[in-house]
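Explain this protein:
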Amino acid sequence: MKAMFKSAVHMIIKKDNKILLQKRKGSKLWPGYYALPADHIDEGENQYDALVREAREELGIDLDPKKILNNYVVLRRNYFEIDGKQLEPYIDYYFEIKDYDGKPKIMEEDKCDELIWADADNLPEPFINYEGAFLEDRTITIYDCKTDGAYIKKSKK
C-alpha cells in the first residue's frame, strides 16, 4: 500500500520588497507565531485550486494561477506528536505571488490575529522555523521538522 501525504499551500505574497505574513491564532500548532498565509489542500483539489480557494477564504483576494512567479515543492517530515498523535509528513507547495486582485485582509478572525508586511530577511519573532528556513534557502526539498518548527535536517536533493 502506498503512503498518502497531507498537503498544504503556502503563499509568498510580495509587495514593495516585503512579504505578507499572518500571526496564527486558535490552533494547536504554533499559536502566536508569524507565518506565511497557508492551509491544507482539501480532498479532490489540486494545489492550484487550493491556492485560489485559500487566498479568497483567508485573505479576501483573487489569484490567477497563470500569474504565479515561482513555485516550489518541499517534503516536510514531522518528528513530533501533538496530543499523543504522531504528526504526518506533508507535501508543502510554496507559491510566489505578486499580482492579485483585492486588498489582503483578515477573513478568518478565529485563525489570524494580524496581517503584516515584513522584510523576508528580517522576519518577526516568533516565526515558524521551517517556513523561515525555506524563505532563506529556496533550494530546500526535504525538511525534517521537530516540535518547535525547527529543522533536524534539511536536504537539497
